[in-house]
Amino acid sequence: xxxxxxxxxxxxxxxxxxxxxxxxxxxxxxxxxxxxxxxxxxxxxxxxxxxxxxxxxxxxxxxxxxxxxxxxxxxxxxxxxxxxxxxxxxxxxxxxxxxxxxxxxxxxxxxxxxxxxxxxxxxxxxxxxxxxxxxxxxxxxxxxxxxxxxxxxxxxxxxxxxxxxxxxxxxxxxxxxxxxxxxxxxxxxxxxxxxxxxxxxxxxxxxxxxxxxxxxxxxxxxxxxxxxxxxxxxxxxxxxxxxxxxxxxxxxxxxxxxxxxxxxxxxxxxxxxxxxxxxxxxxxxxxxxxxxxxxxxxxxxxxxxxxxxxxxxxxxxxxxxxxxxxxxxxxxxxxxxxxxxxxxxxxxxxxxxxxxxxxxxxxxxxxxxxxxxxxx
Length: 376
Known about the structure:
- 40% of the residues lie in helices and 15% in strands.
- By secondary structure, it is α/β, with parallel strands linked by helices.
- The strands form 3 sheets. It has a 7-stranded mixed sheet, with helices on both faces.
- Strand 9 (294-297) and strand 10 form a beta hairpin.
């Protein structure tokens, strides 16, 4: 049975051959620990690591020395949120926030370290800024924005939010888990203090590597402590970035794969990628009405479409699709606040997410199976 993979919002698959080759080559030729030795393999690892920082920083409008590699987007978000707020601060987060944002914020709130409130991003950009203005307090220090939702393709106006934060003297954290590799985003041009993303989704890399790009002004304390490869005789973590936020051994194979993924995305072009994905999304949505008693949830203009059936549960639909080799995700997608916002908090949704690697034949196949399911 052939696989139709439509779960790219969870992780990109299959990984492109250049990405896989880069990971293997890194282990063969740069298998040392960067910064932990004075031998050829360590030197090769350090060279690869710096090249990855340079190209990631260039692609996302940052600087190499403030481009930090982490185990993933969740780690990046936790580092930025927990490392940049101070006791007594107030945090604002949007009502599409993933649990990678919601849980660290609520943990800080529960511990009495800070206060936090959501702002409404569901009713258009003008209403979003009205909600932000209303939620501001004298103690507000940080605004967090979900660049793209992982439940529906709501895209927040990151540059305008960055401008708002600059005007009000606020820190701005952007969750680019669903937008990196799909949409243009820049630390400098968009006024972002902490840009957080995974390497294994839109950047096409292997799991185990994320990115945290900090602005020149941002100051961030470590989330965990350990060896940094420099100043080993000091009792605390070094002040220098990126070593301050990179304790332990870095996942060099995953980093090499992300570097290859960034190069592939740049070669294809963000406009081309987005155009292909949106074309597939339109094709899917236009055929959904003919497939039975289905309806979409929220916006349908991007690479993520959530749907419901008039009488069948998302879990049931997902299981039947899986039996036929069609990979989607069902349930709450680690974003309960988004489902509350969209009115799907009872059972979640069926989420279909596309990549430029998908084809019109993939869309035809899932629509045919959805039609069969509707007729049960």
